[in-house]
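Page 42, continued from yesterday. The earlier attempt failed because a stray header line got pasted into the input along with the sequence. Redoing it now with the clean sequence only.
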Amino acid sequence: MIVNSSELLLKEVAEKTSKAARKLAGLSKGDRNQAIEAIATALENASADIIKANELDCKLAEKESISKPLYNRLKLGKTKLEATIKGVRDVINLDDPVGHISIHRELDEGLILKRVSCPLGVLGIIFEARPEALIQITSLAIKSGNGVILKGGKEALNSCQTLVKIIREALIKTKVSPDTVQLLTTREETRKLLELDEYIDLIIPRGSNEFVRFIQQNTNIPVLGHADGICHLYVDKEADLDTAIAVAVDAKTQYPAACNAIETLLIHQDIARKFLPEIAEGLIYNDVKLKGDKLTQTYLDIEAATEEDWKTEYSDLMLSIKVVDSLEAAINHINTYGSKHTDAIITEDKNSAEVFMNQVDAAGVYHNCSTRFADGFRYGFGAEVGISTQKMPPRGPVGLEGLVTYKYQVTGNGHIAATYSGENAKSFTHKEI
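This time it went through. Structure tokens are written below.
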């Protein structure tokens, strides 16, 4: 059963999820893993139904003339679905994030302190398109002992309803309650969800920068996410140019709608005359539209890049190019216009690479490789709940570690604080166990 506002008030939905999450938190790792495998198997068996539902969403989206980047996020073909199901099974093999003891200390004889990881509680997941995000986050939520309330965009309604129906039916056969996973279906419910700080412990938005920014500005619930994905590639004067071309083409064209695709290419002036025609040829061959600053335009007959272009996430086959006179200038540009997502340098100079990676303010800084590696699956997280560009952890692609918190557990034998204060105060032993 998929819950919507006509069946239950949203507050009641959240309360049911919270109760189911508390029970889930008490289950063993084996029970949680069994539930995840049941979901993977069910998704596998129902692949044809899932793809059919997604094809319907895609047809409706085309009639609505949605943007190309959003359409690309919406489409869930056979290959993407298979990769997502593999990601679900990879979650099973990850270390259990619940019950990890990070501090085990004797405060005094018989008085023991533990700091133990535990689930957050209930996650509110709000996403545009991206039906695979529903699958990824649900598996990670169950692994980490959390309930999840999902709200997909209207463009993915059929896909989401089909997926949640399959997931909930799979959970009936396990020790994890189907109430752990809920789906909301109307826009009005999104606003109401943002007000439920009594029940929701973390909001994770997945979508455009405008969408994420709206979520961040309209709730008191902690939000994990990033508004922009303005990523850069800097080609240093000591770069291997063949490497630079391969990486630039991949970082722009492998999946241009992704938040880790580059939007700006920075090139050192010492190699601009030779390199610009070569990289332009490779990019244009892959249907990339180029814009450039004045120096770039002296070498290439392309449209002028404006100040606004440096601040723009195209999410499409479009790229702005700027010629810089130094490594420092490249770093300054990135730290001025970047979104603190992922930025890369191509160079054979290890010292320049080290300076770049230390001074660029981003969640991911790369040397001689594509920014497209900024992904939880590629990092070995099994899947990711999202990418965070905030300074406080978790940062970058966030896996299970972003879905748990910790509590301090102290066990004594009638110990009282008065014993350790005053003129004859007893000393703590503070011995690690």
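Notes: The mean pLDDT is 94.
Reminder to self: strip header lines before submitting.
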